[in-house]
Design goal:
The protein is α/β, with parallel strands linked by helices. The protein folds into two domains: about 140 residues, Rossmann fold, CATH 3.40.50; about 170 residues, Alpha-Beta Plaits (2-Layer Sandwich), CATH 3.30.70.270. It contains ten helices and 14 strands. The longest helix is centred in the middle third of the chain and has 32 residues. The protein is elongated.
Length: about 350
């Protein structure tokens, strides 16, 4: 198979033991790669070379004439810093009786190629282009895997997390709960079936999408808060911090935001209300995570039973001990109610 030309000009970093050798190699690469070379920098100090790498992320790094320990250390640091990208690393070493051991150690450290420093510039050119093409293929594959992973965690209609994505974030929220309270909120749109029945399902889908976008862009959410589509016209979201009393006010503002919005599609002007139920747990919650969601779901149905377009809530103590949802622990809109037992 013929060598494929680079898809774009490359940037190259040379880290060498001798500045003169590095300068000679640089001139050879400029001549051999021509327009396929964007830039090439030379450093005869490993620390300085890596500092340049951190700032500029060159496509290919050439380690020329370094002791094996230095080239290994450089490669290991590059691989740790690579994250979502791949940097081509080629080790150029002199022909000695220790070459095989050096090659083995550097391949183990993560080098893409180990070759003789005495090879011709044209052969080195072929190696650099091959490593660069490998870099591009690896980066494209990583990008595709990342997009696919994101798709598995995202609801296609609303762009919010799906339940798989929600549960993953919820684990992080429970970690944050060691320091502050957490609320789980269940919400659905009131009489949503009438939208599909009296208009059409496209309008219904548009409404779900619009409410999802409203939640995603709501200024009422803090930096750690997030929403997900539970399914159908149901949503679930998590808020952090505060108290049960402060959270009921925040959640009721979200209800008002939805109630006060108007959505237009295909000549229809749609207004909708929502019912919400939430469960607030104190910091240090040590009960079962599923009980928080179950309690929020129970409170959602309480809101619907009491006339819809309202918020009901429940507070679980830090020890997580609950057997039912008694009225004395229910939280109604804008005030915390606790009846005498």
């Amino acid at each position: 198979m013929p060598l494929q030309n680079p898809s774009r000009p490359m940037s190259v970093l040379i880290v060498c033991a001798d500045q003169n050798e590095g300068a000679i190699l640089r001139l050879g690469l400029v001549d051999a790669l021509g327009p396929n070379l964007q830039c090439v920098e030379v450093f005869d100090d490993v620390k300085q070379g890596f500092s340049y790498f951190e700032k500029h992320h060159p496509d290919v790094v050439l380690a020329l004439g370094l002791k094996s320990a230095y080239s290994e250390a450089l490669t290991i640091r590059i691989r740790k810093h690579d994250a979502g990208r791949h940097t081509g690393v080629i080790i150029l070493a002199p022909v000695t009786e220790n070459f095989d051991r050096l090659a083995e150690d550097n391949f183990f450290a993560g080098a893409d190629d180990v070759a003789f420093a005495s090879m011709s510039t044209m052969i080195l050119r072929s190696k650099i282009v091959t490593v660069f093409n490998l870099k591009m293929a690896t980066d494209n594959l990583r990008s595709a895997v990342h997009k696919l992973h994101k798709m598995t965690l995202t609801d296609e209609l609303t762009g919010l997390s799906n339940m798989r994505g929600f549960l993953k974030k919820f684990e992080q929220s429970l970690e944050l709960n060691k320091l502050r309270g957490v609320s789980v909120v269940m919400m659905d749109l009131d009489h949503f079936k009438k939208v599909n029945d009296t208009m059409n399902h496209m309008v219904g889908s548009f409404l779900i999408k619009s409410v999802g976008q409203l939640l995603a862009n709501s200024p009422l959410f803090g930096p750690d808060d997030y929403a997900a589509r539970y399914g159908g016209d149901e949503f679930i979201f998590v808020t952090h911090g505060g108290t049960a009393r402060s959270q009921i006010g925040l959640i009721d503002q979200i209800r008002k935001q939805i109630c006060g919005s108007s959505f237009e599609f295909q000549g229809y002007k749609i207004k909708v209300t929502s019912s919400l139920g939430f469960c607030w747990v104190e910091s240090g919650f040590c009960g079962k995570p599923e009980n928080i969601v179950k309690a929020a779901d129970a409170m959602l149905y309480r809101s619907k039973e009491r006339g819809r377009n309202r918020v009901s809530g429940f507070q679980i103590p830090a020890d997580g001990c609950i057997e039912s949802f008694p009225d004395q622990y229910s939280i109604e809109p804008l005030f915390l109610q606790k009846k005498a037992s």
